[in-house]
């Protein structure tokens, strides 16, 4: 029988050499997407490095001013992650990187229990021990807990307690290591991404999924629209820093900046300028909601501002319909049931 | 008016299935038996169901359950078919074939969950089901006594982490186990926790003593060995799911001759191999023909190989193809995530669509003989 037990090196990138093709028009959208996402990843590297530097300098000489710099740096880095969070293929899949950046949803509050577990231990604590630890402690939510969690702030372990500072810098450094790997592997993947037709489908599907997650889980669940009628701000992400809506805005802005231009090229090639115009307008209209919205969701869920959340939800719903029903259908993109979530 | 969905016109040429229950020990085909297909499916509204179709194409069973389900197997010498909740599943469902209804729901013991597959001893008494002991992450094969209401009476160590599909060897004494190697924990849902240190394998385990008789390792530690089937002559075909970078395209199909321990992986060539997107879903080894059908839903390909010589016999484009099973002289039946049931005849000439239902078929089909 034809059997091969070859070293992987032989397979490595062999397929990317497919025909040494001329960059046809059909590749233009993927060239654009690759380049835009690369820019998003680079921004994530930079923002994460700034966060790690801010954490180090705060822990070297703690004061309130430096703490607030760490908090701002966390927000900038977290929002950089939100901008590229829609990309669910490629190197982000290695070692469950997306989960490492943001363990969410966290129904069992594992973030809190893992942070407390590490703080109550004596052993080595650095970016290497974090790299080998639970995903719940490897990313932004664990840092958010250290920086904002109201109950944690009342304890003797609150920053700038020594071990909490060590944990803060170790997690920040681990995030930097991961973003470096992500950005460089994305670059290495360029020829494969650009020459493979299936990544057009994968990229559009990634955007569709991301918008559905925003509608159903990041907005719908805390708004009480998912089965039970209970409004619950803790169902949102980034509730500890009261930035759930700012994070959603960053994700939508990321889609507008990093996904839409490539999508427009694809629609232009498909000869559907009306869809191109509709999608561009729909993104602008959806994002305009945030002019009237605070960063957090808690107050709106409790009071009369709920109508503004509903307006945002409806715009996200319209965006999802346009992309899934009109655009994906026109381009012949179908999401497979087993292809996307088999076992 | 009869709902079209409830009255499936599979056509007379459709489900003429041979008497070979794929998930379990094989039976000789009794006369006047009825050949069925069982599969888990989700409705378009997200409802989880177990569906049975008979050879005339009528809906034989449609059972709503709490969990999304995965693999299944028939209990030999009995009117029962089992379907397992998908990992991290807490239940398996026992269906009474005579009534087409749920006979029992069996829950996993504490701290354990199912991986979604099981197989029976040839006499139909003992069920072997792959399980995760969540606190340790160690894989086990739970043993359930069907005569005692599926009480869990014992377990075998599965030789590592993440046992997935398993089949009874034709010798009746040996379990053939696909060890995926991926550690998960219910607290972390389906997140893969050990991609650096995975140790997948294809195993032969003595079901009486638990002794590991053969252990074969895939050519890369991130090739998760998940699904398999075995021929009456002891040839195993196993499918992998690669957890490494997408731009690497390692072999995804293994062949093991259990009689002499000869293990190898199939090279599909530089054209076809990258098209599979590093993911194999289901395997069906034909017991009478030298043909094995293999689904690759992420590559939208249905492959047929000759399992005697390891050569590719046919590659067919089929979007989101998932479940596959042997249909005797009629070749193979295949389902898709978009709800179609297709037949690939034994001459491998051309796919024929038998049915399109308004639901998503899950990854696996279970061939069932109703006595």
From TrEMBL, chain A:
<dbReference type="GO" id="GO:0030313">
    <property type="term" value="C:cell envelope"/>
</dbReference>
<dbReference type="Pfam" id="PF09375">
    <property type="entry name" value="Peptidase_M75"/>
</dbReference>
<dbReference type="InterPro" id="IPR034984">
    <property type="entry name" value="Imelysin-like_IPPA"/>
</dbReference>
<dbReference type="InterPro" id="IPR018976">
    <property type="entry name" value="Imelysin-like"/>
</dbReference>
<feature type="domain" description="Imelysin-like">
    <location>
        <begin position="40"/>
        <end position="301"/>
    </location>
</feature>
<protein>
    <recommendedName>
        <fullName>Imelysin-like domain-containing protein</fullName>
    </recommendedName>
</protein>
<dbReference type="InterPro" id="IPR038352">
    <property type="entry name" value="Imelysin_sf"/>
</dbReference>
<keyword id="KW-0732">Signal</keyword>
UniProtKB/TrEMBL annotation, chain B:
<protein>
    <recommendedName>
        <fullName>DUF1513 domain-containing protein</fullName>
    </recommendedName>
</protein>
<dbReference type="InterPro" id="IPR015943">
    <property type="entry name" value="WD40/YVTN_repeat-like_dom_sf"/>
</dbReference>
<dbReference type="InterPro" id="IPR008311">
    <property type="entry name" value="UCP028101"/>
</dbReference>
<dbReference type="Pfam" id="PF07433">
    <property type="entry name" value="DUF1513"/>
</dbReference>
């Amino acid at each position: 029988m034809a059997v091969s037990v070859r070293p992987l090196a032989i397979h490595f990138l062999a397929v990317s050499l497919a025909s040494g093709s001329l960059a046809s028009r059909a590749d233009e959208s993927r060239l654009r997407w690759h380049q835009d996402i690369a820019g998003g990843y680079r921004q994530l590297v930079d923002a994460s490095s700034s966060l790690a530097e801010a954490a180090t300098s705060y822990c070297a000489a703690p004061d309130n001013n430096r703490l607030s710099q760490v908090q701002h740096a966390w927000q900038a880095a977290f929002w950089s992650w939100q901008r590229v969070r829609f990309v669910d293929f490629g190197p982000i899949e290695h070692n469950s990187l997306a989960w490492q950046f943001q363990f969410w949803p966290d129904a069992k509050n594992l973030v809190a229990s893992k942070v407390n577990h590490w703080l109550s231990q004596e052993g080595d604590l650095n970016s290497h021990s974090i790299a080998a630890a639970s995903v719940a402690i490897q990313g932004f939510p664990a840092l958010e807990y250290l920086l904002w969690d109201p109950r944690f702030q009342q304890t003797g372990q609150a920053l700038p307690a020594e071990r909490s500072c060590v944990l803060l810098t170790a997690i920040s450094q681990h995030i930097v290591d991961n973003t470096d790997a992500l950005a460089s592997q994305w670059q290495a993947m360029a020829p494969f991404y650009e020459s493979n037709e299936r990544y057009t489908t994968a990229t559009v599907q990634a955007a569709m999924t991301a918008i559905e997650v925003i509608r159903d889980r990041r907005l719908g669940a805390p708004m009480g629209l998912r089965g039970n009628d209970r409004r619950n701000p803790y169902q949102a992400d980034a509730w500890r820093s009261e930035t759930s809506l700012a994070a959603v805005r960053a994700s939508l802005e990321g889609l507008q900046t990093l996904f839409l231009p490539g999508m427009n090229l694809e629609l232009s090639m498909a000869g559907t300028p009306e869809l191109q115009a509709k999608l561009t307008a729909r993104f602008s209209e959806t994002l305009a909601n945030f002019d009237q919205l605070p960063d957090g969701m808690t107050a709106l869920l409790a009071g009369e501002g709920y109508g503004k959340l509903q307006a945002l939800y409806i715009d996200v719903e319209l965006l999802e319909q346009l992309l899934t029903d009109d655009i994906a259908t026109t381009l012949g993109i179908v999401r497979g049931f087993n292809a996307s979530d088999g076992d | 008016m009869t709902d079209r969905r409830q009255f499936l016109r599979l056509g007379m040429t459709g489900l003429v299935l041979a008497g070979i229950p794929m998930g379990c020990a094989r039976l000789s085909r009794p006369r006047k038996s009825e050949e069925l297909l069982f599969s888990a499916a989700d409705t378009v509204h997200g409802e989880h169901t177990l569906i049975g179709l008979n050879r005339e194409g009528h809906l034989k069973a449609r059972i709503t359950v709490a969990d999304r389900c995965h693999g299944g197997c028939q209990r030999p010498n009995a009117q029962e078919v089992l379907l397992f909740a998908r990992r991290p599943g807490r239940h398996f469902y026992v269906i009474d074939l005579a009534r087409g209804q749920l006979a029992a729901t069996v829950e996993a013991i504490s701290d354990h969950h199912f991986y979604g597959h099981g197989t029976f001893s040839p006499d139909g008494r003992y069920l072997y089901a792959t399980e995760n002991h969540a606190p340790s992450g160690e894989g086990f094969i739970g043993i359930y006594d069907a005569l005692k209401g599926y009480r869990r009476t014992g377990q075998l160590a599965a030789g590592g982490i993440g046992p997935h599909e398993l089949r009874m060897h034709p010798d009746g004494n040996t379990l053939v186990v696909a060890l995926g190697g991926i550690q998960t924990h219910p607290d972390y849902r389906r997140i893969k926790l050990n991609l650096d240190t995975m140790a997948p394998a294809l195993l032969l385990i003595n079901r009486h003593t638990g002794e590991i008789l053969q252990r074969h390792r895939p050519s890369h530690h991130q090739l998760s060995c998940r699904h398999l089937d075995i021929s009456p002559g002891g040839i195993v075909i196993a499918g992998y799911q690669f957890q490494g970078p997408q731009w690497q395209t390692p072999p995804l199909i293994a062949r093991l001759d259990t009689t002499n321990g000869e293990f190898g992986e199939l090279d599909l060539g530089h054209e076809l191999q990258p098209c599979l997107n590093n993911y194999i879903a289901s395997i069906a080894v034909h017991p009478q023909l030298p043909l094995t059908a293999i689904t690759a839903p992420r590559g939208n390909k249905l492959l047929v190989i000759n399992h005697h010589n390891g050569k590719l016999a046919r590659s067919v484009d089929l979007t989101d193809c998932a479940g596959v099973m042997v249909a005797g002289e009629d070749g193979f039946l295949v389902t898709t995530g978009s709800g179609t049931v297709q037949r690939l005849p034994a001459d491998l000439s051309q796919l024929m669509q038998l049915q399109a239902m308004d639901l998503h078929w899950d990854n696996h089909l279970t061939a069932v003989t109703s006595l």
